[in-house]
Write a structure and sequence with these properties.
There is one protein chain. This protein is α/β, with parallel strands linked by helices. The protein has 3 domains: 3-130, Methylthiotransferase, N-terminal domain (Rossmann fold); 145-373, tm_1862 like domain (pyruvate-formate lyase- activating enzyme, Alpha-Beta Horseshoe); 379-439, Nucleic acid-binding proteins (OB fold (Dihydrolipoamide Acetyltransferase, E2P), Beta Barrel), CATH 2.40.50. 35% of the residues lie in helices and 22% in strands. The chain is built from 15 helices and 18 strands. The chain has helices at residues 12-27, 51-65, 67-70, 81-86, 88-93, 109-117, 163-167, 175-187, 205-208, 213-220, 241-249, 266-271, 278-291, 310-323, 350-373, and strands spanning 3-8, 31-32, 41-46, 75-80, 99-100, 145-149, 151-152, 171-172, 192-196, 228-231, 253-258, 296-303, 327-332, 379-388, 393-398, 409-412, 422-431, 434-439. Strands 6-9-10-11-12-13 form a 6-stranded parallel beta sheet. It has a 5-stranded parallel beta sheet with strand order 2-1-3-4-5, sandwiched between helices. A hairpin with a 4-residue loop joins strand 14 and strand 15 (393-398). Helix 8 packs parallel to helix 10 (213-220) and helix 14 packs parallel to helix 15. The longest helix has 24 residues, at 350-373. The protein is globular, with a radius of gyration of 22 Å. The model has no long low-confidence stretch (mean pLDDT 95).
Length: 440
């Protein structure tokens, strides 16, 4: 039986694609292996969104290629966004790669692997909308938490973003399909469901003529085995009063919002093909906090967008200090091939972009420390994720922490606990972005 090893990079949406391919491979009789050195075929499921992601993908491809001489690898296959975006350029520029597979051919991965083992190397690119969003999956992560991908592609056409070119127009799954998968995940032990798409707040517009995220979340809340339901990638212009009221009312909906605003200056936002300005963003955040008391708000920002003046950056910096986001990620602008912004005049020097990003993150660290101090002597519910042998305590996540991108809660307890369970923890100290506590 041939062994296949897969490395999946990038966002949770890409992870779901990888899990679907793993299911297809297992159903076709392949043995799945985490050990690349033992694999007959290695698949690198890539991200190709920004320059850093491309560099990471290439590093992983080159690292895996050594197993063609040091291990058993007969074929190195590249899939995912990098493969879709650059197609044949991948095999031409990186000769270590044997086969490049576009996202529209994910469903054929088992046949592609069978041919590759025989030495039949052929790049394959199906139509973008041929990516099957309803395929079964083998969860590649923990058994108690899973992503639910409710759609693919994007219609927003932000000028800095290559996703519409890579993934195509937005395609939503039906409410019935999403709920059916969520029920299966829950019956298999998933307690935290994380709803993802390129823009979750636009979900359903293509199928139903209007957004249907509220209807979907309401149905998901009826699944008794689910304890937490978390929603990522909610765009500010589509956050409605109805959505906020649902978030406040439904106990299973985690009081956490991920809102990628990218900037606060109205002129920069218009150049990004994004809506709003500082006034509308301040009003929205005030409404969110008033409607959903205690909510955690996470955002992402871009510094150094073409034409960003020092004054506009200072406006953004002041905005960050004033708003005091609970969670914040900041990226130096990356000029991407084939994007409108990549061709704009007034591109900014790399070092200036980086300096501005670092300035924002330094300020956010201070904000995060202040926010964490406010949590001392409070009790929070924590999803247990593991035990740290070095500091001799358990760790997990509270409602304010999304997996992989946010912090942890480390906590003491006098008795053994089960990974994947929930416990109440009283916070008594802070460690940079993380918290320390004890079970109560």
């Amino acid at each position: 039986m041939a062994k296949v090893s897969m490395v999946s990079l990038g966002c949770p949406k890409n992870q779901v694609d990888a899990e679907m391919m793993l299911y297809s491979l297992k159903e076709a009789g392949f043995e799945l292996s985490v050990a690349e050195a033992e694999a007959d075929v290695i698949i690198i499921n890539t991200c190709g969104f920004i320059e850093d992601a491309k560099k990471e993908a290439i590093e992983n491809i080159l690292e895996a290629s050594k197993y063609k001489t040091e291990g058993k690898c007969k074929a190195l296959i590249v899939t995912g966004c990098l493969a879709e975006r650059y197609k044949d350029d991948v095999t031409e520029e990186i000769p270590e790669v044997d086969v490049c597979v576009g996202i529209g051919s994910n469903k054929d991965i088992a046949e592609i692997v069978k041919k590759a083992i025989k030495g039949e190397f052929k790049n394959t690119y199906g139509e973008k909308d041929a990516l099957d969003l309803n395929m079964p999956r083998i969860l590649g992560g923990v058994p108690y938490s899973a992503y639910l991908k409710i759609g693919d592609g994007c219609d927003n056409c932000c000028t800095y973003c290559a996703i519409p070119k890579i993934r195509g127009r937005m395609r939503s799954r039906s409410i019935e399909d999403c709920v059916d998968e969520a029920k299966k995940l829950a019956k298999n032990g998933v307690k935290e469901l994380i709803v993802v798409a390129q823009d979750t707040t636009a979900y359903g517009t293509d199928l139903y003529g209007e957004p249907k995220l509220c209807e979907l979340l309401s149905e998901l809340c009826k699944i008794k085995e689910l304890h937490w339901i978390r929603t990522l990638y909610t765009y500010p212009e589509r956050i409605t009063d109805r959505f906020l009221e649902l978030l406040a009312k439904e106990e299973k909906l985690v009081k956490y919002l991920d809102i990628p605003i990218q900037h606060s200056n109205g002129d920069i936002l218009r150049r990004m093909n994004r809506k709003g300005n500082e006034d509308t963003l301040r009003a929205l955040i005030e409404k969110i906090r008033n409607t959903v008391p205690g909510i955690t708000i996470r955002t992402t920002l871009i510094t150094g967008f073409p034409g960003e003046t020092e004054k506009q950056f200072e406006e953004l910096h002041r905005f960050v200090k004033d708003i005091k986001f609970d969670r914040l990620g900041c990226f130096a602008y990356s000029a991407e091939d084939g994007t409108v912004a990549g061709e704009m005049p007034d591109q900014i020097e790399d070092q200036i972009k980086i300096d501005r990003m670092e300035h924002i993150m330094e300020t956010q660290m201070t904000v995060s420390e202040e926010n964490n101090k406010k949590k001392k002597d409070t009790v929070c519910e924590v999803l247990i994720e593991g035990y740290d042998d070095y500091i001799k305590c358990y760790f997990g996540r509270a409602t304010w922490d999304a997996p992989e991108i946010d912090g942890k809660v480390f906590f003491l307890t006098p008795k053994p606990l089960k990974i994947g369970d929930f416990v109440n923890v009283k916070i008594f100290d802070t460690i940079e972005y993380d918290l320390m506590g004890e079970v109560v």
